[in-house]
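Repro:
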Amino acid sequence: QVQLVESGGGLVQPGGSLRLSCKASGSTRIIRAIGWFRQAPGKEREGASCLDWRDGSTQYGDFVKGRFTISRDVVNNTVYLEMNSLKPEDTGLYYCATLYDCRGLRLGIGAYWGRGTQVTVSS
């Protein structure tokens, strides 16, 4: 079993930046990939980014358009999502999840999920 805890969300003005963290604990040796997803109120969850834990390769959702960067701290079992040039439409609850592989970013299939961290982009 894997536990995931997100942090780093908050209120930011349009054009601003935030760095989200996803700390994994428990049976971390079974982690294959970790994805970041966002969900706005009344909207479907969509994939933002994914990192393959085995080789460090990354993937990004179309809405990111080069504004977000995913990275990892192997020693501390933490994945980060650096978000730049934030827009009001980026507002939502951001979740991280363990994935079988990064194809799960589009499929939305995760084994373990965190509770999410709220990101609000508003002036």
